[in-house]
Design brief:
The protein has 137 residues and is of the alpha+beta class. The chain has one domain. It is built from three helices and nine strands, in the order ααβββββαββββ. Strands 1-4-5-9-8-7-6 form a seven-stranded antiparallel β-sheet, with helices on one face. A two-stranded antiparallel ribbon has the order 2-3. The longest helix has 18 residues. The relative contact order is 0.14.
Length: 137
């Protein structure tokens, strides 16, 4: 009789667990996967005045830095228009060559292509992407 009660209890617990939304998944592997996903995310930093010797606008916000062995990347938002940001970078770095805009995005490059600045329109200003490859880092 006790054996039957244990089977009923096990059945009831199984049914209850499946209907309650509970899960007995491997929480260790879920936690490890979550941590590794966060490790690959960019680092949100307070906006510096320059990145890899490239000037950053004073009103830069939401700066994200990616610094890999081959390429360093800084992405930020500015409330300035794309035209204003183009003027800012042409004044700060006169040797950067401005290319014709494509889909509203303007590319500025150094002669050796080691520095690239992409100025893109954003709803409330501009997004700036700075890419510096290893030969100029």
């Amino acid at each position: 009789m006790k054996n039957l009660d244990i089977k009923k209890l096990a059945l009831c617990l199984t049914v209850f667990a499946s209907t309650s939304g509970s899960s007995y998944g491997d929480t260790v592997s879920v936690n490890a996967a979550s941590k590794s996903a966060f490790a690959k995310q960019p680092t949100l930093v307070s906006c510096p005045s320059e990145f890899q010797q490239v000037k950053i606008s004073e009103e830069a916000r939401q700066c994200q830095a990616f610094d890999e062995s081959m390429t360093a990347v800084m992405v930020y938002h500015s409330p300035r228009s794309t035209r204003e940001m183009l003027g800012f970078y042409q004044a700060a770095h006169p040797l950067l060559k401005a290319h014709s805009p494509v889909s509203g995005r303007t590319l500025l490059t150094s002669e050796d292509k080691a520095i690239r600045v992409v100025i893109s329109p954003d709803n409330a200003g501009s997004q700036i992407d700075i890419l510096v490859t290893s030969n100029s880092k």
